[in-house]
Amino acid sequence: MKVDDSLISRLEDLARLELAPEERLRLQAELENILDMVAKMQELDTEGVEPLAHLAQHPAPLRDDEPEGCWPVGQALGQAPVRHRDFFVVPKVVSSPNA
CA 7, CA 14: separation in Å to the nearest integer? Predict the structure, then answer.
Protein backbone atom coordinates (compact mmCIF):
# COMPACT_ATOMS: atom_id res chain seq x y z
CA MET A 1 0.00 0.00 0.00
CA LYS A 2 1.35 3.39 -0.95
CA VAL A 3 1.01 6.24 1.51
CA ASP A 4 0.25 9.22 -0.67
CA ASP A 5 -1.59 12.51 -0.33
CA SER A 6 -4.97 10.97 -1.19
CA LEU A 7 -4.60 8.39 1.60
CA ILE A 8 -3.63 11.09 4.10
CA SER A 9 -6.66 13.15 2.98
CA ARG A 10 -8.92 10.12 3.42
CA LEU A 11 -7.56 9.47 6.91
CA GLU A 12 -8.03 13.14 7.75
CA ASP A 13 -11.68 12.92 6.73
CA LEU A 14 -12.28 9.69 8.64
CA ALA A 15 -10.66 11.08 11.79
CA ARG A 16 -12.30 14.48 11.30
CA LEU A 17 -8.92 16.21 11.47
CA GLU A 18 -7.44 19.22 9.74
CA LEU A 19 -3.70 18.68 9.59
CA ALA A 20 -1.14 21.33 8.84
CA PRO A 21 1.19 20.56 5.90
CA GLU A 22 4.07 19.64 8.24
CA GLU A 23 1.76 17.31 10.21
CA ARG A 24 0.69 15.61 6.98
CA LEU A 25 4.35 15.00 6.07
CA ARG A 26 5.13 13.63 9.54
CA LEU A 27 2.07 11.35 9.43
CA GLN A 28 3.04 10.10 5.98
CA ALA A 29 6.55 9.24 7.19
CA GLU A 30 5.22 7.49 10.32
CA LEU A 31 2.71 5.43 8.31
CA GLU A 32 5.42 4.42 5.83
CA ASN A 33 7.62 3.29 8.75
CA ILE A 34 4.76 1.24 10.19
CA LEU A 35 4.04 -0.40 6.83
CA ASP A 36 7.75 -1.17 6.36
CA MET A 37 7.82 -2.83 9.77
CA VAL A 38 4.73 -4.91 8.95
CA ALA A 39 6.29 -5.97 5.64
CA LYS A 40 9.43 -7.14 7.50
CA MET A 41 7.29 -9.09 9.96
CA GLN A 42 5.47 -10.80 7.09
CA GLU A 43 8.82 -12.21 5.94
CA LEU A 44 9.16 -14.21 9.18
CA ASP A 45 8.48 -17.94 9.11
CA THR A 46 5.69 -18.45 11.66
CA GLU A 47 4.94 -22.05 10.74
CA GLY A 48 4.07 -23.96 13.90
CA VAL A 49 4.03 -20.88 16.13
CA GLU A 50 0.96 -20.68 18.34
CA PRO A 51 -0.97 -17.41 18.20
CA LEU A 52 -0.51 -15.16 21.24
CA ALA A 53 -3.66 -15.03 23.35
CA HIS A 54 -2.24 -13.16 26.38
CA LEU A 55 0.95 -11.20 26.96
CA ALA A 56 1.44 -12.92 30.29
CA GLN A 57 1.55 -16.70 30.44
CA HIS A 58 -1.03 -16.72 33.20
CA PRO A 59 -3.60 -13.93 32.94
CA ALA A 60 -4.59 -12.24 36.18
CA PRO A 61 -7.40 -14.10 37.95
CA LEU A 62 -10.81 -12.48 37.75
CA ARG A 63 -12.64 -11.58 40.91
CA ASP A 64 -16.20 -12.69 41.53
CA ASP A 65 -18.75 -10.17 40.34
CA GLU A 66 -20.63 -9.29 43.48
CA PRO A 67 -23.42 -6.71 43.41
CA GLU A 68 -23.00 -3.78 45.76
CA GLY A 69 -25.30 -1.02 46.81
CA CYS A 70 -25.92 1.93 44.51
CA TRP A 71 -26.61 5.57 45.15
CA PRO A 72 -30.18 6.79 45.41
CA VAL A 73 -31.24 8.77 42.33
CA GLY A 74 -31.33 12.07 44.19
CA GLN A 75 -27.81 11.63 45.54
CA ALA A 76 -26.39 10.66 42.13
CA LEU A 77 -28.12 13.56 40.40
CA GLY A 78 -26.93 15.89 43.14
CA GLN A 79 -23.43 15.46 41.69
CA ALA A 80 -24.56 16.53 38.19
CA PRO A 81 -23.78 20.07 37.02
CA VAL A 82 -26.90 19.98 34.79
CA ARG A 83 -29.94 17.75 35.09
CA HIS A 84 -33.45 17.47 33.72
CA ARG A 85 -35.91 15.74 36.03
CA ASP A 86 -34.34 12.34 36.79
CA PHE A 87 -31.70 12.46 34.03
CA PHE A 88 -28.18 13.78 33.56
CA VAL A 89 -27.83 16.39 30.80
CA VAL A 90 -24.65 15.94 28.76
CA PRO A 91 -23.31 17.54 25.55
CA LYS A 92 -24.28 15.84 22.31
CA VAL A 93 -21.31 13.78 21.11
CA VAL A 94 -22.79 11.77 18.25
CA SER A 95 -24.51 13.34 15.29
CA SER A 96 -27.11 11.77 13.06
CA PRO A 97 -26.05 11.19 9.43
CA ASN A 98 -29.28 12.90 8.35
CA ALA A 99 -28.82 15.92 10.60
Answer: 10
